[in-house]
Each structure stands twice: as C-alpha cells, then as structure tokens.
Amino acid sequence: KKNLQRKLVTNLKNEIKNHFNDSKKNFIFNFERKINLNNTVDFVEVSLGKSLNYQIEIDTTSTNENEKYMVYNNAALFQLEAVYNEHKRYINRKIEQSYILNNLYKSQLQNQFPTLFHEHSIDNMIDLILIDKGNQRNEVLGKLVYELVAKNVKSQSIVPLLRN
Questions:
Q1: Model's pTM, two decimal places?
Q2: What is the pLDDT of residues 43-69, one digit of tens each?
Q3: Most Cβ neighbours (<10 Å): which of 47, 125, 138, 152?
C-alpha cells in the first residue's frame, strides 16, 4: 500500500514538473493590454488609466514552445487572465502614479527640495511606490505591474535630472 502511494506521489510530482512552471524558474512572458473595440473607445483615457475598457492578456509569442506550453498551463490552471482583469482598477491606479512620477516631476522635486531629495532617493521612492524588476516576485501582482506600468516610468527617464 505504501509503495502504491509513493508511486502515485512520484507520478504526480513528475506530471507537475513536466506540465507547469516551477516557481523558481524565471520564464519570460509579457502582459499585454488589449483595448476592447466593441464600444466607443477613448484611447487617451485607456493610456492614462482612466478607463476600464481593455483586457489584460498573457502574451506568449516571445517564448519557445516548451515554455509557451507551461505558461499556457499556468494561465489555464490559475485562470490568470480572469484574475488579472479583476484588478484593472489597481492597474489603473498604478498607471496614474507612473504618469505623476515622470521625469519632469522628479526634476521639479529635486530642484525645489535639493537637501531632501537627490537623484537616487527619488528613484528609490519611485521603486517603493511602483515595483522594480528585482522586487517583483515579492509584491502582489508584481510582474503584472512591472510589465504594464513600470516601463512607462523608466521610458520617461531619457532626459537626465536637472541639477542646481
């Protein structure tokens, strides 16, 4: 009886290992916001996080076939797209925060409060409010927020911060 149980547990572990993501592996897949075209869409409102008229989908086009299969299984098992779409308000709030924390705003903070803020402390503050890549595993919806929102703030950092 114990050998049968051991064999069943071993088979189950092998099935999980072969068909689902190991949480320690870091597969590269992206999230994508798809705008719902059935209704009248204000693209500016969607981009600014003011509209819920979009769908969050997992994009597996950049992965190999084996990883794509595992990502698909995880998405199906945990119903990830449905879960992520339930958190659109949270995503919109993070999108709004990312626009607030753009490069011009950071420069103004540094110029107005030079003793309080410097370039590194402002970036650290942004990482506390948003989620940086190194910390995304420790945050709720961390990868989702990083993929959809944090890129916006990082892309606005092209111009170096102004100095007094």
A1: 0.57
A2: 667 767 777 877 888 877 766 888 888
A3: 152
Residue whose entry in the numeric block shows the structure tokens 């595993």: 137
Q: Residue 113 corresponds to which amino acid? A: F
pLDDT tens-digit series, residues 103-118:
677 778 788 888 877 6
The token pair at 21 is: 């993501």
Letter for the amino acid at 145?
A: V
116's CB contacts (< 8 A; 6+ apart) are none
Six-digit token string for 81: 């797209």
H/E segment holding residue 32:
strand 30-35
For 98, counting Cβ atoms within 10 Å of its Cβ (0-12 exposed, 13-18 middle, 19+ buried), the class is buried
